[in-house]
Automatic annotation (TrEMBL):
<dbReference type="GO" id="GO:0005524">
    <property type="term" value="F:ATP binding"/>
</dbReference>
<keyword id="KW-0067">ATP-binding</keyword>
<dbReference type="InterPro" id="IPR050093">
    <property type="entry name" value="ABC_SmlMolc_Importer"/>
</dbReference>
<keyword id="KW-1003">Cell membrane</keyword>
<dbReference type="InterPro" id="IPR003593">
    <property type="entry name" value="AAA+_ATPase"/>
</dbReference>
<dbReference type="InterPro" id="IPR003439">
    <property type="entry name" value="ABC_transporter-like_ATP-bd"/>
</dbReference>
<protein>
    <submittedName>
        <fullName>ABC transporter ATP-binding protein</fullName>
    </submittedName>
</protein>
<keyword id="KW-0406">Ion transport</keyword>
<keyword id="KW-0410">Iron transport</keyword>
<feature type="domain" description="ABC transporter">
    <location>
        <begin position="3"/>
        <end position="237"/>
    </location>
</feature>
<dbReference type="InterPro" id="IPR017871">
    <property type="entry name" value="ABC_transporter-like_CS"/>
</dbReference>
<dbReference type="InterPro" id="IPR027417">
    <property type="entry name" value="P-loop_NTPase"/>
</dbReference>
<dbReference type="Pfam" id="PF00005">
    <property type="entry name" value="ABC_tran"/>
</dbReference>
<keyword id="KW-0547">Nucleotide-binding</keyword>
<dbReference type="InterPro" id="IPR015853">
    <property type="entry name" value="ABC_transpr_FbpC"/>
</dbReference>
<keyword id="KW-0813">Transport</keyword>
<keyword id="KW-0472">Membrane</keyword>
Length: 247
């Protein structure tokens, strides 16, 4: 298994309820995982723990054979090899598209940087935008550049926080499929959190529903649809039975 999360527990204070309680999940290489839940369910907390922005009380995280945290180890965010796409994209407004993407490639030589820049711009289909600034881009284009910047250093995992919350409904429809295509072409293992079931259905290979810090469903989008269909049929049957009793 590529990513292994085991029994992760976390609370924001000793007196508060657990934000995550014994969260475990195994992710395959190149898989796109959606963490689906309402506000306060623990989904953003999970992202912060994976990124290294919070330290768990218990549990472990491994990517391939590399331990990122456990009872004895805690790697700092910059040493994890994990990319992050923030809800507001967090592009540097004073830097061009090219410089935003190159920001995390300081270890590469000049020729390697140039080649990698061209590769990721082609991947997100924005080859002619290298000299533009973030304010000159649409919301969808800004999101693509944020993804390109996250992908550029070849991270082992990419985390996306509510990737469509800043886009209008019409643009969301198009960008959902585009984002999945980008992630699949790059073969990037991805975890994204959302409260929108449409995001999860279109983007994810598997959906993890979370409530009060605990998993209550794991499966493919079609599995969730089957669950909802069965629940709807059961509800209709109950109503029909009640009507028969009245007769």
């Amino acid at each position: 298994m590529y990513v292994t999360i085991e029994n992760v527990c976390f609370s924001y204070s000793k007196k508060s309820a657990a934000a995550l309680d014994k969260f475990s999940l195994v992710i395959e290489k190149g898989e796109v995982i959606s963490i689906l839940g309402k506000s306060g369910s623990g989904k953003s907390t999970l992202l912060r723990l994976l990124a290294g922005l919070e330290k768990p009380a218990k549990g472990s995280l491994k990517i391939e054979d590399k331990v990122l945290f456990d009872d004895k180890t805690f790697l700092q965010p910059e040493k994890r090899g994990i990319g992050m796409v923030f809800q507001d994209y967090a592009l540097f407004p004073h830097l061009t598209v090219a410089d935003n993407i190159l920001f995390g490639l300081f270890r590469l030589k000049k020729a390697e940087k140039k080649r990698r820049l061209q590769e990721v711009l082609e991947l997100v289909e924005l080859e002619g935008y290298a000299k533009r600034y973030p304010h000159q881009l649409s919301g969808g284009q800004q999101q693509r550049i944020a993804i390109a910047r996250a992908i550029a250093p070849n991270p082992s995992l990419i985390l996306l926080d509510e990737p469509f919350s800043n886009l209008d409904a019409e643009l969301q429809e198009k960008i959902r499929k585009d984002l999945r295509d980008i992630l699949k072409k790059a073969n990037i293992t991805s975890v994204f959190v959302t409260h929108d079931e449409k995001d999860a259905y279109v983007l994810a290979d598997r959906i993890v529903k979370i409530q009060d810090g605990c998993i209550n469903f794991v499966g493919r989008p079609c599995d969730m649809l089957d669950t909802y269909s069965q629940a709807a049929l059961s509800s209709k049957a109950s109503v029909a039975e009640e009507e028969l009793v009245k007769i």
